[in-house]
Amino acid sequence: xxxxxxxxxxxxxxxxxxxxxxxxxxxxxxxxxxxxxxxxxxxxxxxxxxxxxxxxxxxxxxxxxxxxxxxxxxxxxxxxxxxxxxxxxxxxxxxxxxxxxxxxxxxxxxxxxxxxxxxxxxx
Length: 123
What we know:
This is Molybdenum-binding protein, HTH domain. GO terms for molecular function: DNA-binding transcription factor activity. Residues 31-85 form the HTH lysR-type domain. The chain has 123 residues and is mainly alpha-helical. It has a single domain, classed as Arc Repressor Mutant, subunit A (Orthogonal Bundle). It has helices at residues 24-36, 39-46, 50-64, 83-111, and strands at residues 14-16, 19-22, 69-71, 79-81. The longest helix has 29 residues, at 83-111. The two termini are 35 Å apart. The model has no long low-confidence stretch (mean pLDDT 88).
C-alpha cells in the first residue's frame, strides 16, 4: 500500500466583530470581478448563482462598512472594484502568500522526514 504524503493546506479568514468579513471565497469573487468586469461572470466561474454572489458582496460591504464594488461608467456595462475593494483584495492576497510561505517552511521542518512526522519539538 502506497503511503500518502502529507500536504499543508491553509485557509485565512478576517473577522469583524466576531463574524467572517473576508476570506478565500470573498477574495475569489472580487478577483473574478476584477478579471471579468462582471459579477455574473465571476459568479459563473466560481459555480455560484448571481444571487449568491450579490449576497456575498452585501455581506462583505456590511462587515467592512463600505462598498467594494461599483457600476462601471461609460459604454461598458458591468462592475469594477472600488479603491477599498481593490485594497482589500491586494492586502488579503499578500497576507495569505506570506502566511502560506511561513507555514509551508515550518511544515517542512516538522514533517519532512518520517522520524519527525507528527512530532512537534519543544522550543
